[in-house]
Design goal:
Blueprint: H1 2-11, H2 18-22, H3 26-58, H4 66-97, H5 99-119
């Protein structure tokens, strides 16, 4: 959410300060795009966990049958998994959204593999 606020601050600069915006590099724009995607994924997956906890609080004092407890356990597990998915997807979001990030990964992997080949 802070990235959205910072981008809004950049976009709200007066016209005479727009040269600073044009001074941003391609890496910066690709990073912003990756952060937008990351925020969207994180928000969409976190909604299911928030919905479950709201449902759990609303039905906390009701008598539960075995079926109701089974459904609650399933929804709890689903909420926990969906809460942790965005942290696992960060790498894939950056690989998909940023060409510069992909090139840097290739460069690092080539350095590592070349170093490994030299050591053998």
């Amino acid at each position: 959410m802070l990235s959205f606020r910072n981008v809004r601050r950049i976009q709200s600069n007066p016209i005479e300060n727009r040269q600073q915006l044009h001074a941003m590099h391609r890496k910066d724009f690709q990073l912003l795009r990756s952060l937008y995607y990351h925020d969207l994924v994180h928000t969409s997956f976190s909604i299911s966990a928030a919905m479950y906890y709201t449902y759990e609080a609303a039905t906390k004092y009701q008598t539960r049958t075995i079926l109701h407890r089974t459904i609650d356990n399933f929804l709890n597990g689903f909420g926990i998994i969906s809460h942790h998915i965005p942290f696992c997807l960060s790498f894939f979001i950056f690989i998909h959204a940023s060409k510069i990030f992909r090139l840097e990964i290739k460069r690092v992997l080539c350095k590592i593999s070349a170093r490994c080949l030299v050591l053998k």
